[in-house]
TrEMBL record:
Keywords recorded for this protein, A-Z: Oxidoreductase
GO molecular function annotation: oxidoreductase activity
InterPro entries: NAD(P)-bd_dom_sf (IPR036291), SDR_fam (IPR002347)
Keyword Methyltransferase in record: no
Record SUPFAM superfamilies: NAD(P)-binding Rossmann-fold domains
The keyword Ubl conjugation is annotated on this UniProt entry: no
The species this protein was found in: Sistotremastrum niveocremeum HHB9708
This protein's name: NAD-P-binding protein
Amino acid sequence: MGAIFSNSFNPQKDIPSLEGKVYLVTGGNSGIGMYTILHLARRGATVYMGARNENKAKASISQLKSEGLAHGNGRIIYHYLDLSDPRLAKKSAQEFLSREQRLDGLGPLSITKDGVIQGVVTNHISPFVFTNELLPLMKKTAQEPGSDVRIVNVSSYAHTLPASQYTKFDSKESLNVTFGSGTLDQMRRYGITKLMNVLHINELQRRLDTENVPIICISLHPGGVQTPGLLEGVSKWRFGSFLKTIAGTFLKSSSDGALTSTFAAAAPVVRQWPEKYRGAYLEPYTKIASKRKEAQSKDSGKELWNTTEKIVDEMGL
């Protein structure tokens, strides 16, 4: 109960043994994903690191082992995952299904050949396909005694950036809305995909509740985190070297940035208070935060889901 009234969270103390549980964390070879894997594995879980580059992933696994995967901790296993194409995402999910019999937790501007902006494909459509392909296994796991299955989408405070007129999702064209080439324009474009993450979780939770499936779905803002991707992006801006230094000084480490996603994936208080956490949006580290108006719309969630299904059908998936 304490986590509801306190914003502190220590995975080593606040998460019980996860021995026997299986998690799959996407984008796991760096940043928040990598340290979410570390926190879960330290509590005994088997954690699959979903990543595209095997060499980088295995280097990351070696680094994590050096940071504290001592005897008695869980396992970290590389799993090939490329979210740049929904077809590859589906194939990856099918390969995972052939490897495991349970799944307790699922972790987070060029035009593609399918006519959808790449950021939307990578941040929304491929995760949508990947999640749906694994959902039957997660539903099966959720029926086992003592199970506690969760689906976590790492969104961002950036979901509040796009203006309301850019938050309709009733067609492929509406998903492809573009802005200028400036930094703020790119943040708005990114913010739309992060709004999609929140809406996806909302609608998925609604559908699971309708089926009386006890899976808890959560979206979250990890806070300002000095991930490799962010620092690389900042370095390309005007005065990039200076801004990169500032970012490294004031932003959270990747390890601290992973605490919110680790809490969402495995903290016992989430299952103790399911009515509070189903479809919730979290901010560091345990706070249930308010979503922007458009992110609370059931109609928008259904609209995005239906449009995404149509696009996926056109892809032949």
